Amino acid sequence: MAPFSRRQVLGAGLGSAALGVLSGCTTPGTTSVNAAPTIPPAHGETVKLTYWSWLKDLQKVADIWNAQHPGVHVEAVWIPSGNSGGYPKMYSALAAGGGPDIAQIEMRTIPEFMLVNGLVDLSRYGAEKHADKFDRTLWNQVSFVDGVYGIPQDSGPMATFYQPKLFAKAGGTPPTTWGEWAELARELRRRHIYIDCFPLSDASVFCSLAEQAGARWFKPTNDGWAVNMTDPATMRVAKFFDKAIDDDLVTTKFEPYSPGWFAAASKGNLASITSASWGDALIEGVSGGSGKWKVAPMPTWDDDGYGSSQLGGSTAAVLANSQHPKEALEFAVWMCSSREGIDALITHCGIGWSPTPDYIGAPRQKPSKFFSGQKYNEKVFVPAAKQQNPDWSWWPITQQSFSILSDEFRHKASGKKLVDCVAAAEKHIMAAFKDKGLSIRKERA
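User: That's the sequence. What structure does it adopt?
Assistant: Structure tokens below.
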């Protein structure tokens, strides 16, 4: 995927309405920080950085840096995850002229913070010289023709976590295609076991499945955005899971990793979950599950699409009001790319998949007792990280779009088809773009 410009990302070029939004008239950032000069710290002054993140025990990672860099001290402050209140807290802080130096921001949310002039362009401080330390697909999601707006912190390549003994009850092994998955699911239901759950209130999972099938919902153009959420790849996925839900092959009664999910998994009523690499730490919370789980590549869409997909993934981004963006960049690069930083993030924070192509972290090179002695990170997730859709683009109102799609999916419980839910959501999302003064048009296949 060729990189595109900030102007393309934000759909500028629409006249006064869009330009008003982009210049900050209705946003937390009143002007773009990236045109302002920077002020270096005074000689001998200890630079103090704050980092807002929903990672527990992140201070233990920062303390390693602090011990080695006495001139730059990092304080980690825990906040709720972005969707649970962290992002509103960041926006409020930006509007008040404050906030942290660094914040954990999901890759899919970077364009939304760009929309409000909330992020520092790190290319001003030499971010590009660190590009080869990171996976190229991830780097593309934070970099644009005219800037770099975050440092990849982790990602979420996908695979299938499963209970071999439950699969064996249905005479099955890990399915390699979604067609095989449906056949195994049918056999499991005859034994009162679900193969997986399908969340109706979290559209991000469906998005990842469509992305794997080859969808590309949004494309930046010179005059705004083109959208196609009813393309053949997406409709294929929607029709597939319409039938899976209608045939009771999956349950919609609980969400992944909810109390209901853990209860079903521990009782042997749920055989597997196709999820991101970070799911392993959560699955280890299944009561009595040690030695009963394994990991396999996620099913593919026959000969189409990609071997894996992405679910989640964060950045360490420097917010607009930081007084020390250069030092913030240096810490973010150390934390996300050095072996010491990666190992500490895994050990203390259970971070998602490493953003570096050549080092997955020492803890992930060992066999897992919980996952039946597998070295699944090297055998499953290393290839998965290289088998994702490289053409996928995040757009300026991703989180709002997911909320719209989730609201539509809830109608599935009352009989509406997912294919119709997606089509309806697309219209609402286009209206939301226009409400923000952004250009959007329907792309025809």
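The mean pLDDT is 91.
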